[in-house]
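User: Reviewer 2 asked us to show a designed sequence for the structure in our supplementary figure. I'm pasting the structure tokens here. Could you produce the per-position amino acids so we can include them in the response letter?
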């Protein structure tokens, strides 16, 4: 990761999570800063905008590398799966249980023929 991002990220990490509380809907909600306290939420948003601005100045290859690093930094357990997605997966798996393996897929030649036969 480019050094300029490391500096901005390190500065942002000191602000993220402070001044923000979670509601029952698990959405970020700004808390009201106490008199004399700096608004850390605004600081975090400023740091985020700095990161975005700097990211747009990177070459395409550097942006790809940055995206890969960010994606790899996410642990699977940190990303919640909503109940509706779990239900959808269960429904789709249940629908496939009675289907024979050869009926679950279509050979590429058949797909290609169907795709290109529609074009004139």
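Assistant: Here is a per-position design you can include in the supplement:
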């Amino acid at each position: 990761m480019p050094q300029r991002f490391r500096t901005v990220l390190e500065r942002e990490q000191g602000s993220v999570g402070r001044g923000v509380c979670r509601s029952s809907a698990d959405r970020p909600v700004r808390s009201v800063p106490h008199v004399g306290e700096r608004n850390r939420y605004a600081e975090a948003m400023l740091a985020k905008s700095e990161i975005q601005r700097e990211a747009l100045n990177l070459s395409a290859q550097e942006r790809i590398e940055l995206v890969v690093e960010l994606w790899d930094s996410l642990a699977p357990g940190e990303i919640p799966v909503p109940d509706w997605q779990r239900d959808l997966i269960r429904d789709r798996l249940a629908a496939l249980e009675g289907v024979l393996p050869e009926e679950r897929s279509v050979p590429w030649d058949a797909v290609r023929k169907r795709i290109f036969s529609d074009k004139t």
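For the response letter, you might also mention the following. Residues 40-56 form the longest helix (17 residues). The helical segments are 3-13, 40-56, 60-73, 83-97, 101-104, 108-117.
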